[in-house]
Amino acid sequence: MSITENVQQILKELAEGNCFHEPVTLVAATKTRTPEEINEAIRAGITDIGENRVQEFRDKYDAVQGANRHFIGHLQLNKIKYLIGKTWLYQSCDRMELAEALAKRSQRANLVSDVLIEVNIGCEESKSGFDYDTAFAAYETIRGMQGLRVRGFMAMLPLAGEREYLLSLVRKMRTLYEKAKENDENIAFLSMGMSGDYRLCLEGGSNMVRLGTSLFGARNYNI
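RE: above sequence
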């Protein structure tokens, strides 16, 4: 199927909402995708796009129009300057050092930057993020930083594991999300779910998914 057909099919599926019948935000993960591919997805109904790499974010910025820009990859401190004022949501606030640097840069630009706190829910050495047991305390600290507004949490499930175990991890994240949301009107997003596991994540309470291959097909790593 074409990108347009894939987008329309996924949007139709997501229109049913998650397990709580909440609206689900679809973020098109655009790593390695060309501006032409991304613009086709936007014409088909995509409203939010997410880049993993700062260089790609910069290179495609002017060639892509009409969507909220998310940064969803690991962010090095020395590259924050290229994203300030251009990013609708930083989904990968994975360490306190990054939060502090983002806050300083945002204040300097007279901006408030929206962030999600990344949690390493599977306790995987290969992934960044706050430990689950410290994530709420991190949220409370980052929430108090001038220049930042915490909008929720982001996590990635392990690639392998029993279905019930993976679902339990999503539900743990939903518990964390609801605990924060209880006294914070800014909390709106639990970003969990990629092309291989988004349905399970919706079943556990995610309300934002980041899909790449489901929309665009297999990635081209030769660009």
